[in-house]
Amino acid sequence: MATRNARTTLIGAALAIVMLPLARAAPAMLRGSKAPEYVIKADYLTKFAPFVGWPPRAFAGAHAPLIICIVGADPFGVALDDIVRHRHAQGRPIVVRRMSVLAQGTLCHILFVGHADDQATQDIWRAVAGQPILTVTDYSPGVAGGIIQFIPQDGRVRFTIDASRAQANGLSISSKLLDLALRTQP
C-alpha cells in the first residue's frame, strides 16, 4: 500500500510540474472557453493519451494522427486548439474535430461528449459501443458517463475511470492512470 501511495504521489507531482506552464499560459488560453476548469480538462484530454493502449486497427497507419472529437456543446473554445498545437501523443500528432452529432464511422480516438439531451447521449453511447474510443464526459447526476468522467472536487478537476467499459471498447488503461482516478470501476 505504501508503494502505491508513493507512486500516486510521484505521478501527481509529475502532473503538477507538467501543469505549471499551463497554469501560467491559462489567461491566453481562456479566450473562448467557458471557465478555467475547461483549460485543465482540455489539457487532460491530451494527457490521457500516453496512458491508453489502442489496438493497431484504431489507426489508419503508423503515422496517422490521434484524433480528439468533441460532440455536442464545446466548452473548450480555442483552449483545446492552443494546447494541442505542436503536441504529440504516442509519437502521433494530435488533431481536434468538432461536430454537432457523431456520424456513423467517424474516426475518433478520444471522444468528449459535451452537454446534450439524454437521447442524444444514449445514441452516442450506442454508436461507440465496442469501438476503440476513449469516451470522456463531464459528471452529470443520474446520467451514465463515459469511460472517463470529470468530477469537480474541492475546487479541483478530478476524474473517475470505468475500466470495464474501456476493456469492452478494446482499450487498455495504464495502472498509473488508474491510480490517479478518484474511483475506478473494475
Describe the model.
α1 packs across α2 and α2 runs parallel beside α3 (78-84). The chain is globular. The chain has six helices and ten strands; from the N terminus they run ααββαβββαβββαβαβ. The longest helix is centred in the N-terminal third of the chain and has 28 residues, at 2-29. With 186 residues, the chain is α/β, with parallel strands linked by helices.
List the topology elements.
Layout lengths: L1 H28 L6 H13 L3 E2 L12 E6 L6 H7 L3 E2 L2 E8 L10 E4 L4 H11 L5 E5 L9 E6 L2 E7 H6 L3 E2 L1 H6 L3 E2 L1
Parallel strand pairs: 2-4, 2-5, 5-6, 6-7, 8-10
Antiparallel strand pairs: 1-9, 3-4, 7-8
Helix pairs in contact: 1-2, 1-3, 2-3
Any idea of the CATH topology? Rossmann fold
Number of helices: 6
Instruction: Provide the CATH top-level class.
Output: Alpha Beta
Any idea what the CATH architecture is?
3-Layer(aba) Sandwich
Major β-sheet strand ordering: 3-4-2-5-6-7-8-10
Q: Could you write a compact summary of the structure shown?
A:
The chain is an alpha/beta fold and 186 residues long. The protein is built from six helices and ten strands; from the N terminus they run ααββαβββαβββαβαβ.
List key phrases describing it.
186 residues; alpha/beta; 8-stranded mixed beta sheet; two-stranded antiparallel sheet
